[in-house]
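Researcher: Batch entry, complex prediction.
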Amino acid sequence: MELSRRDVVKLGLLGGAALYLPMERVARTKDQRSLARLPAPYTYAFSRPPEIDLRAAANGGTPVTSIRMAMQQGPVPMLGPAPWPQTNLWAYTINGRINPTIHVDKGQPLEIVHANRLPATHPQHGYESWTSVHLHGSASLPQYDGYASDVIEPGQSKRYVYPNQQGARTLWYHDHGVHRTAQNAYAGLAAQYHLHDEMEAQSGIPMGAYDSPLILRDALFAANGTLHWDDHDRSSLMGDVILVNGVPWPVMPVQKRRYRFRILNASISRSFNLSLSDARAKLWVIATDGGFMPKPVQVSSLRVGMAERYEVIVDFTDCLDRAEVLLRSAEVKNNVDYDHTRKIMKFRVGAGPATDVSTNEIPASFYTPRTPSSGNGYVGPDEVMGLTERMAVKKRTLEFKKSDSTGMWTIDGKTWDDIVASDYKDVVADPAAGSIEVWDFVNKSGGWFHPVHVHLVDFKILSRNGRAPFAYEQGPKDVAYVGEGETVRVVAKFGPHEGKYMIHCHNLVHEDHDMMTQYRVGPRKDDDPNDPIHGDPAV
Amino acid sequence: MGAIGLHTVPRGLADGVRAGWLPAFAAALSASAAIAHLGVAEPHYRAWWAHGLFFVVCGALQALFAVLVLWRPRAWLVLAGIAGTLAILGMYVYSRTNGAPIGPHEGVPEPPGVYDMVTAAGELVLVVVLVQMLAEAARRWAMRLVLLVAGALWVGKATGFLV
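Model: Structure tokens for the complex:
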């Protein structure tokens, strides 16, 4: 019996809906752009993030060991003054300071109580705005490490305790709430945290006004100023505005001297390949994620993946009067570039010699790598860089890939939901406390890079596809940029704490969907007082 | 539009259907969809157990339907097959536009891929074949159901309910 014309119309309506609507959504979101007009690059002044200095020297000889901070939403003129619309930012706040850089000394323990005073639901996405605060780069106990599923619900607070026993380094605190990390961090929950020590103070490198964060990130803005979210169906978010410390493509006046910049790539998915436009300005890398390198390395460019930190010294001494030096980014495979995304910021060099040449040194070396001490104590940067492959008692391999069937991002075929389904018992590795292991991070894909972050430890990169790592990444690291088709081999000493810690891709879109797993240092404990969820939960 | 109750289900297949090729074609299409759904149940289970269960139930019902429609085609069975397939197609569109309604990735739309688009296309053909198997009275009911689901999807799109 043949179909009537009317039946064909009805079936056509059904077929159209079933096949067209999903495809239409993909096409629409892929083509969607944000503001039609963007702020002009190099028109706004450079801005340092606000600071809170908790060190003894800044507080009458007594270090501050406890503070309270609140996560809040508020309007910020990120795109510039009116008539540009304001942007509702989510931020860590204290005494009116938004996303402050926190300064502490080595050996100065710090308790931070973070209160979640964000709206109960995200104003654009509608999800419940739970958070978790991770101090990235800190060897904290599991319950204070920002474990993704150890969340702070809106209205709750959680205490975090940081030992600060490691060497001088640039850390950063950012959101890590399960399945919400990308959108929470994108909304603004990210800032730096500087740990200082004697070696740093005596090194003569630029300090104070000549030592500044450079927090790089990209963003998309909607016409009303809100941050626009488009993760291209869970692959990556690529913004068309580059922000430096929250300012689009700023201009910084500098003297003819050396400046120390603590570069952090706080983007969700974009990496940078940084260089300077003027050969008279010299670029030195002095520290990586986990602190100082054995010795400074002069480079012409460096690749900075998401969550990586590189401390650099830019030497403007030989620049011409009133020279304009651009910090720019070259092409990086699998980035999506827009009109101005290879521009970062501009340095405007002053005329005449510098008026202040204090803390203007680049030492020949910071330390000599040495064999790590036995036992399970904190591992200094000299010990991390003294690790060798032959010291390892075990080798492991972790493969990072996208599942063809589910579209989920996986580590060794598993996701964080698998960890949840195991009641947080599954681990991909279980190194003994104080043991040294070699891990291979494998990315067979040609379409994606994965900055892999291992919580708790600093590691040394041994090789990339069997070849030596880049000169600028030969310092203690906690993020390894695993490029397309790459195998990156690292060695680490696991400790000083026992318990469960996360491993994940720092493309936060990948992390949320669901390229995150965990490992355990030491034996399994059923009633672990340092359980990451139950050890000291939010109240 | 009236409710579809069992007491109102008209009986009857189109003439010659039992001996023709339509039941075999419908069985093949339903079995293919079953294989497709069972094939992705395990990775969905790893995402969340309920998602995995959903695919296992869908696949099992489609496999069972394939056997029954080949073995003993009946009007009520064909109507049930149409209703079930329309429900799966509706859920498919919802998951690709608004995201899964519950679970760990609630509200996050899944990108359509070749695998699921081909499966959805096969299910559309299955609906057409099943409609062809029905005699006129039963077919009218089936087409009302088709129109109901298609209309709901397009109204959902027009009103912004479907993103």
